[in-house]
Amino acid sequence: MRKLLCVLLSMFMLTGLLAGVAAADDKITIYVTDWENDQMNAEIQKAADEYFADSNIKVEVLAGSYSDYGQQITAMITAGDNLDVFQQGYDQGKTRFDQGMVLDMTDALAADPDFVAGFYPGAMDGWTSNGHVYGLPGLANVYGVFYNVDWLTANGLAIPTTDWTWDDLWDLAAKIHEIDPNLYGLYNFDTGIFGTAQLGVSEGGAPFIDKPIDPSGVTVDEKMVEAVKKISELDIAGILPSRTYEGSSLQSQFEAGTIPLLWYGQWEINALIQTPPSFQWGYAPSPKGSVTGATMYDYTGWCVKKTTEHPEEAMEVAKFLASACYGPVLAVTPVAACAHESTAQVFFDTVAAAGHPEAADAVQNMMEREYKVAVRFGGSWADDASKIWDVGYNDLVDKGGDFEGVLAKLVQQVNAIIESEQ
């Protein structure tokens, strides 16, 4: 009798074990690829394992190649490799949507309006084209000014504040260059038309393009002309680098304390927190003008492969990656604030707790601004437009000239390209 009970017990345990294996095998694996580093990917995988533990979904995070990520994604989609959800810039997502590589999320998101309503105002603008949604914004990249507190204090210069103006920035940059003529007053500012557009809009002018995706055309009004003139003046005076300046190592130079003022994306906050430099640093938002404040729109996000075998499950993973995922992830690697307000506060709290409430305030200030200008051209015509624009514009900024005439001609040429593609 005891032998029979042992046999029955063993069979029962084996059945339970096999049932557990079967349950695990019944899970649908959704493959995710991104360009993040190993530390952040480990946190994403951990968060996904916990979030989907009691569901029929299993997530496998596959690290992408940062240097040739775009080519890698194209190759994976074309070859039919394991890929369901992948990270993109908003303009990249639109291009792949036009190429038939990306799932149209419109109907799936219509069934969950509360989720969509949770994004920061304007966050979805770069992920929607003619009423079709092709991706979900994940992280909000904003661009402000990192400053070396010790250098500024030692030279009797004012520390930037959240409510500073463009005039404040240019005055500070001019003083830095005056103190040390071997230094530019500000490094890495986008003196191209998209960065310069912040100045024009801040003074009440029209945006260069009316929306980040599918713009009706480009516009250069009187305020924008004045903004370009100002940037050219600073360029020629040596306060800002020229359009051809090579700035690939500027991040490292700031971290080493050799340059006092650096225009850069908020992800550098994480680098400075993880590996603190030998000096005190701070971060200020992009300045405001006399009328309003504007900031650059640059949301990265998540797309679903059009040919995924599991669209419903892939959509659930994409929604997770764009929201709940960033709660635990950004508490460890605060690279950016989440575009979804449900978890954005984690970034602000983590950065403030690390001793930089001014950096948290700067990012939040920029994210909450009503006016967001595009960071680049977005559309199938983007490369052609950039080639036309950059040649004339770069020479104008570096050397000066007939600002009204050159800019008007460039506007006419780029609008002709956009119109031909519509």
Question: Secondary-structure map with pairings?
Answer:
Elements: H1 2-26, E1 28-34, H2 38-51, E2 57-63, H3 69-79, E3 85-89, H4 90-98, H5 106-110, H6 113-117, E4 128-129, E5 132-133, E6 136-140, E7 143-148, H7 149-154, H8 166-179, H9 193-202, H10 222-236, H11 250-255, E8 261-265, H12 268-274, E9 281-284, E10 294-297, E11 299-304, H13 311-321, H14 326-330, E12 337-338, H15 341-353, H16 357-367, E13 371-374, H17 382-399, H18 403-421
Parallel strand pairs: 1-2, 1-3, 10-13
Antiparallel strand pairs: 3-11, 4-5, 6-11, 6-12, 7-8, 7-9
Task: Sum this structure up briefly.
Helix content is 48%, strand content 14%. 42% of the residues are buried.
Question: Please, could you describe this protein's structure?
Answer:
It is built from 18 helices and 13 strands. The protein has 422 residues and is an alpha/beta fold. Strands 2-1-3-11-6-12 form a six-stranded mixed beta sheet. The chain has a three-stranded antiparallel beta sheet with strand order 8-7-9. Strands 4-5 form a two-stranded antiparallel ribbon. The protein is globular. The model is unreliable at 1-23 (pLDDT under 50).
